[in-house]
Amino acid sequence: MAYLTVSDGVKQFSSFRALNGVSIAVERGEFFTLLGPSGCGKTTLLRAIAGFNDLTSGTITLDGQDLRAMPPHKRDIGMVFQDYAVFPHLSVFDNVAFGLKPRKVPAPEVKTRVAEALAAVHLQALAERLPAAMSGGQQQRIGLARAMVINPRLLLMDEPLSNLDAKLRIELREEIRDIQKRVDIATIYVTHDQEEALAISDRICVMSAGHIEQIGTPQEIYGNPQTLFVANFVGTLNTLRAGEGRDRLLAGLRLVAPNAAHWTVRPERLRLAAQGDTTAPAAAVLPGRISKYTYLGREAHVQVETDAGTLVVQIANPGTRTASQPGDAVAVVMEAGALMAFDADGKRLPLEG
Amino acid sequence: MLKRFDFWTLVMIGTWGILLLLLFIPVGSILLSSFFDNTGTATLDNYLRFFAEPRFQRAFLNTMVVGFGGLVGALLLGSIMAFCISRFEIAGSRFVSLLAILALVSPPFIGAYSWIVLFGAGGVVRAWLRDFGITMPPIYGLGGILIVFALKFYPFVYLMVSGALSNVNRSLEEAAEGLGLTPWQRTFKISFPMVFPALTAGGLLALIQSIADFGTPRLLGRGYNVLATEAYTLYSAEVGSNMSMATTISVVLIVVSMIFVLLQRFMSRRNVYHGNMINKPAKIRLKGWRNGLAHFAVYFIGLCGAMPVIISIIYSFRRTSGPVFQDGFALQSYERILFNLGDVVRNSLTFSASAVVMIVIVGTIVGVLVARRTTLNTSLLDGAFMIPYVMPGIVIGIAYIAAFNTGPIVLTGTATIIVLSIFIRRLPYTVRTTSSALRQISPSLEEAAVSLGYSPLQAFLRITVPLIVPGIIAGGMLSFVTAINELSSSLVLYVGSTITMPVRIYLLILDGDFGTAAAMSTILLVLSGIAVYIAFRLMGRNEQALL
User: Fold this and answer.
1) Superfamily assignment of A238-349 in CATH?
2) Which ipTM value was assigned to this complex?
3) Residue A251 C-alpha, separation from nearest chain B C-alpha, in angstroms
């Protein structure tokens, strides 16, 4: 049995069902991320594990123990909050030491453990300061040190980086990942940022509307999405327009899937070629015209109007070449292996050929 | 459902118990009494008499006139001051704010008395002007009442509106400027709607206080009677005291105040704007005569409002012979208080302190209840706490006499009844400040403590309580200011041994002993000042907390 399990978790609020039979299993030392848009139930699930909102039905076990029978303050679960929840009337040191008091840790040990925790988040110099005037990044480091220092059985993080600016978010997520690997503690991390989830997780659980869409490693989630929702939510996606152009293209690639309702392809799997250039054997060439060119520095997005709809082609490393002009004629090169098909319910279909 | 019968259920029951005993029974008593005549027969005669007799019609009309007069005066002075201070650079603007606070916490009806000293029949300024051949009418009557109300109540409007004005995002006005609106249009189409709720809220306070004020029309009115004074006259007449008519007037006063509160809520129901502080308005440095005019307006209003305080401090040190002032200065007035009236000061201090202790304890617990358990029950509780907020002091006094003079609980003539009357009037304030302070503390703070191993009660005591305590103590200090300055309910409830400073001052003025009155007012002012200072030290200089 896994370290942490939730089975058939249901949470019914008065007017809607936030969780609709959710089951997850998290292993020791695993970094497990709940990913989904707001309102998908990820925070509800996290708060049920923490004990702040009990489930309507279902079971939660941690190391074989029934968590739902235990009041939240006895669960020994560390939590990091979106709004930091740093105690404004306590110094940084006292904030971090706060959780050691009810654990009756002797004073000298408190000192060394708090000092270690603060060093891990690079705050040792600020130990005696009050947190009120500190930046969001520093406050969240306090929150992190405070949750880690008690050596909890499980660490929960509720969108800890969503109030920080982009650069800091990347920096801090790397640190969180490093610390988590070092102390080897099972962690459940909630986020709506797909890039963050891919960067930080051992496994990702994509949720939508109270149910689980797919659980898998970042590579599986991004590279092999099992539903249209996952494919759309994680990364970007071109959907081919139904019609003669698409049929011709699929026939050219010898792709067959009788129940397919949606044919999609990721922008980075497409290439642009000069007209008439056919290199790869299992590839089709779609002629089209550029309608928009977006330069982003390390990459560029070229929007092309073709028979099979509007396609965005991602060009890596566009360099300082002059931009292609809207109206230029180009050809989009598409390999058979790049295409993903989904049925009318959004389920992924296997492809032969 | 048995497990819900916990501590908070007991608090809920206790709170309704307190409201029943200290609010609903007294209000019910006056309501009941107003429907009976003096022989104990049920009747509508009192109300018919109220609407038929010219004496009461005039008092009703006069009440409306002073109410709206006070409202207009306070709005005018308050908005001029708020606009000038928040939009122009005024030298010493903090000092001017201090003058406004001084006017706000100055003992009641001392204003009336000081204006009599200056502009009364034998007024200093009038006598001085007469030397130049200028005769001006004495200040008595409606005009005097309105001047005193405007100068006493303008700080309500000033503090409310200046708070709102400094929260109007400058980008909004800049956007309007970019769209081609003239400065005049900008003020009326952008800034005015933004401060409208503050204007009506400040105006409402001025209106309610003007309607409820008893001391000023009593001292300055000279026959200009309002409902508050009529109620007191009917109640206190040695011969032919007419309790049922007094209670009828009380009911009318409550209804009138209630109507205005509801009206204000209705008027500003859609105008709730949340200012963001990103782009605060800048203050303009005026030049030339405009600058002079703005400074003159601000200082004129501020100094006139603080005039009563200045006058009573000066007069408290004047040499006296009996009640008559002599040339020169002495400490005689203070000596008289020290040797003859020490028990009055002690009464005021003990009554106010006990009321404040009760207010802080009960108000905090109920505030937590209202903030943390949002149910129909707590919303009703919140609503019920509006009632003491709009009850004029004189009405509370009469209601307590009506409820506790006979029957199972007899409290008339005790210190308890005075303490309880102060307690119930100020309790709503603490409940509101506590609950709004609690709502500003993120629930995740307590959740963090729980996740770290503290039980919910421990988390509340160790995290939430330390965060709200400074605010609660500060609120207690401000309640102390209100409590120690309370005149009108104490005037109805006092007996010889429970006389308080404001009542003594009122009686001293009626006796013509102005020196002692001024000295006692000064002591009262110093006590209030200390309380305000402590409050500001604890929560920063937050002038709006005084409202």
Assistant:
1) Nucleic acid-binding proteins (2.40.50.140)
2) 0.84
3) 57
